[in-house]
Each structure stands twice: as structure tokens, then as C-alpha cells.
Write a structure and sequence with these properties.
The chain is mainly β. It contains one helix and 41 strands.
């Protein structure tokens, strides 16, 4: 997560009245867990009414969709039409959860799923609830009225998960003063403890994907001069969160309210770090840049360890959290690409263009990282962060997807000719052209990757087939959810049905 990027878009939790939330524990998984989506028989999902898919597990275990099952506008028909900005017109949509085929369960709201697709956070009966889709355990996270509720566009949720699905950060409203407070919840045993946000009124709190840090948005000054502290609201054409239709366009034009400050805190405790003073978390360490341009990590006690010396003129590109190293462009050495860390200082024998913006720094887990060498070299290269080696991509084009030692490359073609898709494995040296591709989008589920109209099994490097339509979801069996289309701006009529994205013989 790029925390500096969050500064520009963070808008967020409304202040609401509250009492202290109850703290029941989350049961441990048991041997009698419900069948997985791979084991469960497929059947129709939803009813014969307008339906808008929201989310689905990559093993098909659960589906969330919105349906209009009542004639709420009194025109004598059930119909939902799409606007331009995610808005819908016609009859009102309501969210439904499907843990099995059928009519599903109506919800007040669906907030999010954890990155492993095990846990869901929903609102039912006004209560904020955690659903364990492995065990079917249903736990109250916060009672009605004790958590921030809001569907404002691009507003933060009162919950966020760690990447491994082991921890949840929860914002609840406590006491008669309606104070927002953040708690870290251990999902194995349900225990929770408060994470301090420091001075100011808490407006949002988001757990870093690594699970070691929290980013807080707080109000400390009445910047708009109206005599009160008001959390900002984005001015935008984007529709509110929840039961959105397809988004064709959206714009934003400022915000109302006061300007927040953003700080980062370790969940283990210690001093808060202003977000502007930190590049990214690296485990429990804070990656920072010194006045002379050196890059260093700092622990909770303030002890610094230099990773990249000032003489490099470093422009950081990627933080490799697993191996505790940083991929940088050394502008003082002819834009040389280098790896640096506490125990590694290795040139990679390649010059690359530095990032266009200084805050373009990624940290998503990956073994292969694509870089574009400086002219006159045309082809990209792949940096293997585990072996610290460079592998030139054998075709001109763009690396679109990597997993382990494998990559998918889209090769540009001459005007009028379709693009070509290639499979590469840097461990074996294997390269294979998979054929022409047309379309857009990338989606992965297990070993399967949908890329620009093609479905590829990355474990074998085989093209499974082509698809004419854009996929909304894909599961590990290569299935997608289909329903007949009634036109681009009219919601289709359910039910949904899991079907193979590519039929035997390679056809959609």
C-alpha cells in the first residue's frame, strides 16, 4: 500500500452517536467446516429479478449480489437501469448474501471480504457482523449504533483486514462523547486491543496489509473556520457505496469540511510517525529518506539502519518485504538499477528510467518485478528478487502478470494486427507464444489468469481458450457467473449461474 497515495484520496468515516461495542470472541475453525465452493453443487443464485453482481469468492464459496425484488417506484414493473457513475434508476436494489444456491439472505449492507475470501463483514439488523464462511460462525463486531455507518463515495470503511486474513482493524464509537476508537482484532480467538491514534479526533483508521501498522486520519484544526471539527466529504459525481452498477465515468471537485492530518502507528505500540515523513512500512520498521537523500529504516526506539547511501541519489521503485530489500534507481550513477538492504548492496547491470513521481513506490508481494530499461533498449526485463538476477524479456511488449517465476507478456503488434500473448518461466527458461489477444482486463483465481480476453493456466503455461465477453468474476475451477444480458444500460434478470468460462474445446 502506498500511504502517500492515500493522502490524496482519504475521505472518510462520518461521526455518529455511540455506546461501547460488545466484544464476543470469534470461534476457532472446526473439523466440521462447511463445504467449500469447489465441493458444493452449483445451482441458480438469486431469483428471477434484476440482479447486479457485487463480489464472489475465488473458490465459489460465497456470492454477494444486489437484487430489485419489489416494485418500489410503483410503475408496475421490475426494472433497474444503469447511470453513468455507478448510480441506478428504477426499482431499489438490496444486497443479498448467497452461501448456497437459492434465494440468499437479505442484508442491510455488505462492507468487505478479507483478502483470503474466508471472512465477510456485513450489517444485519443494524449490527456489524463478522461471518466465517469456513465454519459458518456469525459474530457481532459492533452493536447497532456503535460503529460509523456511511456510504459516501470513497469513504473509508470501519473495518480493514491484514493481507493474510489473520487480523481485522475495527473502528467503533465509544462513550457519550461519540468518540471513534480503533481496535485490532485477532481473528483466531476474537481478542481485541485498542490501538492509540494520538491527539485529535479520529476520522478513519486503516490497517496496513502487512498487519503491523495502522494509518490514522485525525482532525486537529478547524481549517474551514466554521467553529467545529467536521470530517471532510468528497465532492464527486460517483454514486454512494453499496449496490453500485457499472461505473463508466466519475469526477471529483474538492471536498467540504476540515483538512485532516495522517499519522502511522505500530500496532505493537511506540511513537506515531507523520505520514509525510515515511515512505512505507517494512515489517515493524519505517522506511524513511534522510536530508541528504539516503534511505534508512527506523525502529520504534528511533534506531536507524541505512539501506541506501546518499551517494546513490536513490529513486525507490519497489520494497521487497519478504527479503527486506529495496529496488532503486541510482540517479547519481547513470540511473543504474540496484538492490539495497541492511545486508545487500548489489548493482543489477541495467540502467532504467526513474519513476515519474517520487512517491511511486510499490510493496505488493511478488518474486518477479518488471522494469523498463533506458533507451535504446526496447524490451522489458524481469528482476528476480529472490535470486537477485535480471532476466531480459525476449519479446517487445509489456509484462502484464507475474506469479512465482512465471510471467505473461503482451507483445505489441503493428498497426491493425492483434497483440500477441506470451508465457515465460525464468526458472526453466521456457517461453511460449500463446496466440493473439483482444479485449481488456486482468483477473486471477488460483493458477488461472484471465487476461485481455484469454484464459490461461499459469501452472502449465497453456491457453485454455478465448472469451468474447469481459469477465466480472473468475473462480479456481475456471467458472464465471453468467446471466442473460438485456442491454448495456439495463440490469440483467437473475438468477446467476456458475458456468465454465471456457467450454471444452476452448470456446466461451
Amino acid at each position: 500500500m502506498n500511504f502517500r497515495a492515500l493522502l490524496a484520496s482519504a475521505l472518510l468515516l462520518p461521526a455518529c452517536a455511540a455506546q461501547r461495542a460488545s466484544t464476543p470472541s470469534t470461534p476457532e475453525p472446526t473439523a466440521s467446516a462447511a463445504p467449500t465452493g469447489l465441493q458444493r453443487e452449483a445451482g441458480p443464485i438469486g431469483t428471477a429479478h434484476p440482479i447486479v453482481l457485487q463480489a464472489a469468492a475465488t473458490d465459489g464459496r460465497w456470492v454477494v449480489a444486489c437484487q430489485a425484488r419489489e416494485d418500489t417506484n410503483g410503475d408496475g414493473k421490475l426494472e433497474v437501469r444503469y447511470g453513468q457513475h455507478g448510480d441506478t434508476r428504477g426499482d431499489a436494489l438490496a444486497p443479498y448474501l448467497f452461501l448456497d444456491p437459492g434465494e440468499g439472505e437479505r442484508l442491510d449492507d455488505f462492507l468487505t471480504a478479507d483478502p483470503t475470501d474466508r471472512y465477510l463483514v456485513v450489517v444485519r439488523g443494524g449490527s456489524l457482523r463478522l461471518l466465517d464462511t469456513y465454519t459458518r460462525a456469525d459474530t457481532e463486531l459492533a452493536a447497532p449504533g456503535t460503529f460509523p455507518e456511511g456510504k459516501a463515495p470513497r469513504s473509508a470503511l470501519p473495518v480493514s483486514f491484514s493481507r493474510d486474513g489473520k487480523h481485522l482493524l475495527l473502528v467503533v464509537l465509544t462513550g457519550p462523547d461519540k468518540k471513534a476508537t480503533a481496535f485490532l482484532v485477532n481473528l483466531a480467538d476474537g481478542s481485541r486491543r485498542e490501538v492509540q491514534h494520538g491527539p485529535g479526533v479520529l476520522g478513519e483508521a486503516t490497517l496496513d496489509p502487512g498487519g503491523r501498522w495502522v494509518m490514522f486520519g485525525v482532525l486537529t484544526q478547524d481549517t474551514d473556520g466554521d467553529g467545529q471539527l467536521t470530517w471532510p466529504k468528497l465532492k464527486t459525481s460517483l454514486s454512494p457505496r453499496g449496490c453500485r452498477g457499472p461505473i463508466l465515468s466519475a469526477s471529483q471537485y474538492g471536498y467540504t469540511g476540515d483538512k485532516p492530518s495522517f499519522v502511522l502507528g505500530r500496532v505493537s505500540g511506540g511513537p506515531l510517525v507523520p505520514a509525510g515523513d515515511m515512505l512505507l512500512p517494512v515489517g515493524d520498521l519505517a522506511l524513511r529518506q534522510g536530508e541528504q537523500g539516503e534511505l534508512f529504516v527506523e525502529d520504534a526506539a528511533g534506531q536507524r539502519t541505512e539501506w541506501v547511501p546518499a551517494g546513490c541519489g536513490a529513486r525507490p521503485i519497489h520494497v521487497d518485504l519478504e527479503h527486506q530489500q529495496l529496488l532503486v534507481t541510482c540517479t547519481a550513477r547513470g540511473n543504474a538499477l540496484e538492490l539495497h538492504g541492511a545486508r545487500v548492496h548489489q548493482p543489477l547491470g541495467l540502467a532504467v528510467e526513474p519513476p515519474h513521481r517520487r512517491n511511486e513506490l510499490s510493496s505488493d508481494p511478488t518474486r518477479l518485478y518488471p522494469v523498463s530499461p533506458a533507451a535504446p533498449v526496447v524490451n522489458q526485463s524481469l528482476v528476480d528478487l529472490e535470486t537477485r538476477t535480471v532476466h531480459p524479456v525476449p519479446v517487445p511488449g509489456e509484462v502484464n502478470y507475474t506469479e512465482g517465476t512465471r510471467a505473461l507478456v503482451v507483445q505489441e503488434s503493428e498497426a491493425g494486427a492483434p497483440k500477441r500473448l506470451w508465457f515465460l518461466d525464468v526458472a526453466t527458461g521456457e517461453k511460449r507464444e500463446l496466440g493473439p489477444v483482444e479485449g481488456y482486463g486482468i483477473m486471477a483465481a488460483g493458477n488461472l489468469v484471465y487476461i485481455q480476453g484469454a484464459l490461461v493456466d499459469l501452472s502449465t503455461g497453456q491457453l485454455l481458450g478465448k472469451l468474447e465477453e469481459h469477465l466480472e468474476v473468475l473462480d479456481k475451477q475456471g467458472r464465471t457467473l453468467r446471466t442473460p444480458s438485456l442491454g448495456a444500460r439495463l440490469a440483467p434478470v437473475g438468477p446467476l449461474q456458475w458456468t465454465p468460462a471456457v467450454q471444452p474445446g476452448g470456446h466461451p
